[in-house]
Design brief:
This protein has 246 residues and is mostly helical. The chain folds into 3 domains: 75 residues, no CATH class; 63 residues, no CATH class; 70 residues, no CATH class. The chain contains 12 helices and 5 strands. A 3-stranded antiparallel sheet has the order 1-3-2. Strands 4-5 form a two-stranded parallel ribbon. Strand 4, helix 10 and strand 5 form a beta-alpha-beta unit. The model has no long low-confidence stretch (mean pLDDT 83).
């Protein structure tokens, strides 16, 4: 009976010449390493822009930055053991399908489990004195749906915008509001939230140009000035009324 030969894989690999196959494996591993950390690298570049555009505190991005290391921890402790038992391929395929499905579902998320969670999402502490004052505004902006609460949305302007993008056809204007604004002669106060994502600074400048008689002020708050800074809103409104003798 012949004795089976012993093959030393390490010696074969070490003594083999480098060819296209080995180079291809090296390049593939290099690309995998780059893509493996791409999520952390990309968020490092876009985080400052997200903070500026969304007007959110940088601390809210903590869970985003820690999600990848936490996932590596779970994968190292649990799924590496599972992969040793059933093989790498089914584990990799299963986990890839899992986070692909979760990514799609995350993009489709449009509800809050409670009004309190909605307030926290928009950086309002529901238990603070200011949050108690703002709660009626959130109750008015939210509607109960299956699974929680959703933001009330008027789809009219969205549908108009989509039509413009699709056909280039703009809706007919019944009234030129800028012309009407320029003819406004009564004492008028406009208060803009400097962090508003709807009343842009360029639009404020256009309001001033259309009617220099309008008094336009800015407060350091969001679009809903009276809800975001009620004290400032009352102060400026009362001062305007007293100045104009109304």
């Amino acid at each position: 009976m012949e004795t089976p030969g012993v093959v030393n894989v390490s010696d074969i690999v070490d003594n083999s010449k480098l060819g296209l196959f080995q180079a291809g494996i090296f390049v593939l591993c290099f690309v995998c390493l780059i893509m493996d950390g791409f999520d952390v690298q990309s968020i490092g570049y876009v985080a400052p822009e997200i903070i500026r555009e969304w007007h959110i505190p940088s601390s809210l991005l903590g869970p985003v930055f820690s999600a990848a290391p936490f996932g590596v921890l779970i994968g190292s402790l649990l799924f590496s053991i599972l992969a040793d038992k059933i093989g790498r391929r089914p584990v990799l395929i299963g986990l890839t399908l899992y986070f692909s499905v979760m990514t799609v579902l995350t993009a489709r998320a449009s509800t809050f489990p409670s009004i309190e969670e909605a307030m926290r999402f928009f950086h309002a502490d529901p238990n603070s004195p200011q949050g108690i004052l703002e709660r009626p505004r959130f109750e008015a902006y939210l509607k109960p749906v299956e699974g929680g609460f959703a933001i009330k949305r008027d789809t009219h302007f969205r549908d108009q915008f989509r039509k413009v993008l699709a056909t280039g056809e703009r809706p007919k204007q019944g009234v030129d509001l800028w012309a009407a604004l320029s003819k406004l002669a009564c004492p008028t106060l406009v208060i803009r939230g400097s962090r508003s994502d709807m009343f842009a600074a360029e639009t404020a400048a256009k309001v001033r140009a259309a009617n220099p008689g309008i008094k336009l002020l800015e407060l350091d708050t969001g679009h809903h000035v009276a809800g975001g800074d009620p004290a400032g809103f009352q102060r400026e409104t009362r001062a305007f009324i007293e100045t104009e003798g109304l």
